[in-house]
Amino acid sequence: MKANKKDAVRSLWDRYKYVVLVILAGVALLAWPSGSREKEGPAAAPATAEEPTLEQTEERMQSILSKISGAGNLTLMLTLDSTGEKALAQDTELSYSGATEAPEDYQRRSETVVLSESGGGEGAIITKSTCPVYRGALVVCEGGANPEVKLALTQAVAALTGLSSDRITVVRCQ
């Protein structure tokens, strides 16, 4: 009986020994410390990425679009349908007064959840972030009369903003 159990264990080990060794190696690598554990100062605190303004987005897109062959000197104007929004985590407390079956009055208190960072700073926790929605785009450039340039600019603006081509106008400047 004991010999059968030994043989069964040995056959399982022979069959799955490499799988077990790979799993053990993976666990060892996950447990291995990575990087240095030096004390992080304020310079090492994670930077909060600020959303670019509409003007910054226009300037960045202008510099990129002006590099399209044949576009030349270029000016871009974007219009917004809605701006991007950020929803912050809230800690809400609701208290009732009176009987539990039919409360007479209630009070609601809500606070924004703030995360303390190692550098001594604080930052709100963002639970949802939406990007701005563009309404339309106007591109005025020297090569705006050329259909190939028009198509390339329209496709580039559509790719960068999510606008359909009927909401993008490309014209030639004087």
UniProtKB/TrEMBL annotation:
Q: Where is the composition biased (Low complexity)?
A: 42-55
Q: What ranges does the record give for the region Disordered, renumbered to this chain? A: 36-55
- The protein here is known as Stage III sporulation protein AG
